[in-house]
Every structure is written in C-alpha cells, then in structure tokens.
Amino acid sequence: MDSRGEIDEDTENDKGSMWVLDQKLDQPMDEEAGRLKNMYREKKFSALLLLRLAFQSLGVVYGDLGTSPLYVFYNTFPGGVVDDPEDVVGALSLIIYSLTLIPLLKYVFVVCRANDNGQGGTFALYSLLCRHAKINTIPNQHRTDEELTTYVRSTFHERSFAAKTKRWLERYALRKNALLILVLVGTCMVIGDGILTPAISVLSAVGGIQVEHPQLSNEVVVIIAVIILVGLFSMQHYGTDRVGWLFAPIVLLWFLLIGGIGIFNIWKYESSVLKAFSPVHIFRYFKRRGRDGWTSLGGILLSITGTEALFADLSHFPVSAIQLAFTVVVFPCLLLAYAGQAAFIMHNKTNVVDAFYRSIPDSIYWPVFLVATAAAIVASQATISATFSIIKQALALGCFPRVKVVHTSKKFLGQIYVPDINWILMILCIAVTAGFKNQSQIGNAYGTAVVIVMLVTTLLMILIMLLVWRCHWILVLIFTSLSLLVECTYLFAVLFKVDQGGWVPLVIAAAFLLVMYVWHYGTVKRYEFEMHSKVSMAWVLGLGPSLGLVRVPGIGLVYTELASGVPHIFSHFITNLPAIHSVVIFVCVKYLPVYTVPEEERFLVKRIGPKNFHMFRCVARYGYKDLHKKDDDFEKKLFDSLFLFVRLESMMEGCSDSDEYSLYGQLTQQSRDGLLNNNGNSSSSNMDPTVSSVDSIVPVKSPLHVNNTVSSSGQGSAQTEIDELEFLNSCRDAGVVHILGNTVVRARRDSKFYRKIAIDYIYAFLRKICRENSVIFNVPHESLLNVGQVFFV
Prior knowledge:
Layout: E1 20-21, H1 29-39, H2 47-61, H3 63-66, H4 72-76, H5 86-108, H6 122-132, H7 161-171, H8 173-206, H9 209-212, H10 218-234, H11 244-268, H12 280-289, H13 291-295, H14 297-300, H15 307-312, H16 319-347, H17 355-358, H18 365-396, E2 406-407, E3 416-417, H19 419-436, H20 439-468, H21 473-495, H22 503-532, H23 537-543, E4 550-559, H24 568-574, E5 579-591, E6 603-607, E7 615-622, H25 633-651, H26 669-677, E8 695-698, H27 703-709, H28 715-734, E9 736-746, H29 753-769, H30 773-776, E10 784-792
Parallel strand pairs: 1-8, 4-5, 4-9, 5-7, 9-10
Antiparallel strand pairs: 2-3, 6-7, 6-8
C-alpha cells in the first residue's frame, strides 16, 4: 500500500475485501500530505527558547559526562606519575582528542541526528531499522500500520545500494537474529551503566572527605556512599518531576566551577600543559610508556563515559539544544578541568589519587565538595532514568519479561519508574561499591561497559546511514573507520583489565542477555504456534450464526496476540463450554517500532464473518514509549471505535458508483468528498454485501461528526446500523467479560536439550515470576475468565 487513501486486496483468512478509510476525511489531501511531510522535521526554535532548552538539557543529558574529572587521572595513573612528567601531557592530549572525536564529532553532531523522533538509545536505532527493513522477528505487523503518522520512513530505488542492503538483511533469519543480539548486547551494557555509574560517581565524590579528614578510613567512605545510594534508589518512585528543575542549575554550576578551577590551576602551576593540543604528544606518550601506556587507555576512556547516556537521554530536547549546550558549556569546561588537573599533577606527582579535590583552592573546598556530591547524584539519576527507559523499550518490543512500569509525571511521557528493575539495580550497585571499595576496579568495569555500547552504536549507525539516511558509501566508510579506530583501540586496552574488575559488566550483561533472549525466543515460538494453529474461517462459518452454541447476552473480549485470523483459544473455548456471548471481540494489543501511536489512530477495527455472527477484531496499537493506562479509558475507546466502525460500514454499503470508489483503485478527492456528504458508498460486483471485513483506523473523536454527515439517501442501511448499534449497546449493558488464555508453553519431546532448558526451565520460570496478562491489561478480577491451554513449541 503506497498511500493513505489506497484500497488494497485483503490477503488474510477472513472472507471479504478490506477498505482502508482515511483518518481525517474532512481534510484536503494536498494539505494533509504537506502537514505529514513537515510534521517530523526539526522545529525552528527562537534564540531564547533554544537557550532555555540547552540550559535544561545540561541536567538531563550531561551529568554523567561532567562528573568524569573526579576519577579519570586516578584510573590513568593508579600508581602515581613515577616517570617523566611529560606523561601527564601525553595523557591530557589523549583526553582532548578522545573528547573531540567521540562525544563532539561522533555523538553530538552525527549519532544524535539518528534519533527516533527525539528518542535515543540502541532500541530507538533498532526501531528505525525495523521501519525501513523487514527485520522484526515477530511478524505481527499489518500493512495499515505503515500508514500511521508516526511511522515515518524514507523510500529508495530498488537498484540503490540501500535497497541491496535491505534485501541482504531480510534474506536470512540468521542475520535478523544477529542484529537483534547486537541490540540486546548494547541494551545489557546500558543496564550495566545504570549499576556502575552511581557506584563510581558517588564513591568518587564522597571520597573527597578524606582530603580534609585523612583519618577517615575507606570503610567509612564506602558506608557513606552506600547510604547515599540507598537513598537515591529509594526515592525513585517519586520521580524527578518535582526536583528536576534543580538538576540543570546544579550541573551548570558544576561545569562553571570545574572550568574556573581549571583556569586557576593552569595559571598557578603550569601553563605549558596547553601544548597537549598538539597530537604529537600522543605518539611520544606511547613511545615512552610502551605496554603501560596501552593499558592506561582504560583510564583515559573514562573521560568519555556518559557519552552513551547522552544519546539514551535525548528525551524531549531538540538536537540543536544538545549541540549548543555541549559546544558552548560542556566541551570547553571539561577541557579546562582536565588541563587544570594535569597542571596540578605535574607539580604534585604523588597526589594523583585525589588530584581533583587537592587542586581546589582551600577557600571554596567545601562548597565544591557539596556541588560535586549533588552533581554525582544528578549523573546517577540520569543513568538510572535511561535504564528505565530502555527497559520499557525492550519490554514493548517483546525482549524483556513483563514488569510493572509506572509513569511518575503527568506532564512528561518519558519519566517512568520500573520498581523491580530499580531494586535489582540498587542491590547490584551496593554490591559493586562495597565489594570493590576503590575507584580503580570500578573504573575498569565501567570502561568495559561503555566501550561495548559505543561499538554497538557504531555498527547500528552504519546501517542507519545506509538505509535511513542513504549516505554515499565514502561517507559511511569515513565514519566507520574513525569510530572503529578509536573504539577498538579502547576495547583492546580494557580487555587487559578484565581480571581487574572488567569482568563485572560482562557477567551482568551475560545474565541480562540470557534473560532477554530466552524471553524473546519463547515469545516468538509462542506466536508462531498461535499463527499455525489459528482457526480457519471456513470452520467458523460452518458453525452458523449461533456458532453451534447458546449465545448469551453480553460482550466477550477475547485477548490474543494475533492481529489476523481467529485464535486457537476461541476453538478451545467453544469446544469446552456450551455458551458464548452474543458479541465476540478479538482484542490484540501490540507494540509497533514507533515511539508513540496517536490516540486517534490507536484502534484498528474489523468485522469477522457475516453480520449476524456479531464477531469483530480490534487491534490496539502502541509505540514503545506509550503506556497502557490503568483506567476504564481503554474499554470506553474500544467501544467508541467499534460503534464508529459500524456507522462507517453502513455508510459504505449502498453505493453502486464504482467510478468513485473502486475496490483496487485509490480513494480520490472526489470520493472523499462524496463520503463526507454521504452521496455514495462503494461495493463491488463480486462482493457479498452481507460479509464485511472493513478495516478502519478509527478516530475516537469522530462519532459526532459521522452522525452529522449521515443523510437520508441510505434509509435501509441507516436502519440496519441503528438496529446493530442498539444490539451492541444492549449487550454492553448486559456485561463485558474478558477472556484470556492461561497458556503453558512446553518444548516438544523431540526438541534439542538446549531448547528444552530454554523453554521448560528458564522461560517457564520467567513467566511464573513476571506479571500476569490480566494485570498488564488492567482487567477487573470479577470480569476475568481464564482459558487454560498448552502450547508445544
């Protein structure tokens, strides 16, 4: 289907033909096309608004990157500067060019532009790719999903390099699975960041107490850090809506302080450190230090930690605000801070461990200490929020067990809280802090997680540049070469420190990867079983209007994961019970690879079988940022959409003007106007008027408009419509019952042992501890009916 008004042939098992109705029939097509074309272009902001957004982005995006000066030089020279002081200049030169190549050039000016309508992170990139190529491993998408206003994608010529890349990706399932595993690895490492960032940031900030009170032991510092961490995670359920306005001033004050202290130290100690801007000192650094210089890259890497969180925390800020904040405030202040510390260390070679705090002028020591602690908490909060966000994305795309997701803000959709993940993060964070007790080993672990996330982002960006941006291969090659040169160098360096703490994120990521992949594998196998065992329409039609049962008053909402066809649960239900409700609605709640689905485009309604069967299907579509609300709103909108569907279907039944509304043609502006004025409704000569399977993306706000447009030309259809609406209302008043499948998934007897372990033990355990479907769908307990069934996959 190429356009929003086109009518295509239905290839599903349901009898009949499918008509797709335009969502906004009262809007001219050229105006609508222009509106959609410009909807997702980056908005032009006034200078004042751009400055305000850049200021606010400091607190959300740059907290993690800004606290890196607390621990970089200590992890670079854990034993102090014992050789040539010029080693400090070489390390500073590495920091300068790492900050320039990775955060500035790669992320701020390239990767951030690959956001999915403002949403960042590995799953946002994956969603972009899923819209441009058929790589989604759960094949539950319908062609009408591509007509959503948020389903934005570019088109390309069949002979282009992008088209060849698309076909290469789609050809084999192995490539799709490999891409999914790559995304899951990046996601697991971001979760590892959510554990390690609070640990190293808070521990490094609190460690400044020992500078003024050297008698305090490391155990006391660790206890203070653990208390702060417990308080931080315990306050997560309140959200950041009330205190979020403090984040930006705190981080801005932090950047101004470290920049000012850096200028002071350069002036006081050694202005010659500015020669580090010459890259020749990098060559000399490696020549002097040899293997030690190579392994010290693990500490240099920490200067760019937080860059991956920068992309994951894009949230509601435009790219231009992110770029302005980084280039005007963050980048120069960080360069001054590192240069100032380098100048201090060159004259105080034994004070590398706490170089940041010892380089602070005595008169402002305690204020800077307090601001540093507050900035560390803000940085930790940003990383925790990013972890919650990426867990929600993974959950929506079927890659994470069902966990509770709570919105903490009525104003901002992206502020969420995941209780189960929060306490897991807290326990692991405290274990890392108390177990290692020093910044060096935590820094090694942190660096491993960060560099793997960056590598995953680079590999995904290659596909984004080819498929989405359609860049010339030379530009792709330049970007790939520069990124991999830096990141692979850092990766090989941190591998030397796997036994010194670098194993921690690998173990954490392996555990989460096992959980996520097994859950996704079980979900895919369960969906495939349902697809293969769904009931044929011939069998349903053979039952007759009563379905071979007693039709009792009321409406039965049968929940299924299938977006087409009659699910196996229905046949299982009617073969075991002697009655079924007068109206049956198959409800499918599915998530699409878009960040949100507008409310007016949420529901897709379709009739199944002849009218006297009173069977419908309603597909509720959500984006990965949407939340299934816990109220009666969902059920109300579902019925509003159903009633509107019946009205639209009735309007379309009596038309014989095939020139205006052709079965395979495109809905023209003339036919759109005709539908508005109800001058004609379409039918085809080979179509049974008693059988309808009209698909309509139903606008919830439109029933009044549709009622007002119904004219007197279709009295018979109108009477039929009124009778059916009265019947549906009476059934609704009689009661609504929610029918859910209580499915047990088992591996077949002839399955290989690893599949049996994955399905019968790991997947079964995860289904047992995760939330029930009735809780996810907010089904009232008194209206719930569970149907037990066993799937052998």
